[in-house]
Amino acid sequence: MENVFQIVGYQNSGKTTLMEKLIRAAAEKGMRVAAIKHHGHGGAPDAKDSTRHQQAGAVLAGVEGEGILQLNIQQDNWPLVEIIKLYSFFPIDCIFVEGYKKEPYPKAVLIRNEEDLPLLKLENIHCVISWIPLSDVPYKTFQVKHEEEYIPFILKKTTL
Known about the structure:
The chain is of the alpha/beta class. The protein has a single domain (4-158), classed as Rossmann fold, CATH 3.40.50.300. It is 27% helix and 25% strand. The protein contains four helices and nine strands; from the N terminus they run E-H-E-H-E-E-E-H-E-E-E-E-H. Helix 1 packs parallel to helix 2.
């Protein structure tokens, strides 16, 4: 599956809200969208975010954490590459991934405050969406309130 795009950031940076907006925008364009959420806060996954992804228009939505992939399939752990392989059996056009910061897929990084700046060292960053003013950032940068600019930018990355 080539059309994978990640949304990464620390807790409460707006990842799920951005995922909803991207899924909705892609679905409105007639795309069949899938979503994968990484539940990285310990414990079994909570389906509330994948439910939000489905309500936004995802035809396939899953959440993974503690080795549980909420599609009612369980094994010791679920590397992102294996989940993407599983999703490839479904008729989808793109996959938006929430989390999995260290994976190599193209990504948008959400920066909420200065403590989040170490995220700019991740690989394969295609853009940065920031709550604070940034300067000297070597990536395409958007302010969080300018979604009319970054939503089309990201959607274009998923349809190449």
